[in-house]
Fold this sequence. Notes:
The chain is mainly beta. It has strands at residues 15-20, 26-30, 39-44, 52-57, 61-66, 74-81.
Amino acid sequence: MALRVEGFSQLFTTAGRATVAAGHNQFTVSLAGVVPTDTVLATVQGTGAFSVKNAVAGTGTFTITISKAPTSPVSVGYLVLRT
């Protein structure tokens, strides 16, 4: 089975964007159905000297950690995959 998309894909219910608050280097997202064996792909959105350090799935949540605490909010895009 394969996924083929021509053009922009739409309506991934396990994808989104979250914000790392100023002064923090991680955040947790609640997402029903996530299990610890899922894979979380995450990338910092925009410019700056930040990168995703790790993304760890839990039960009904996942936590994303970035390289350092920002002085202003930083946006991170994510996609959770069942592998």
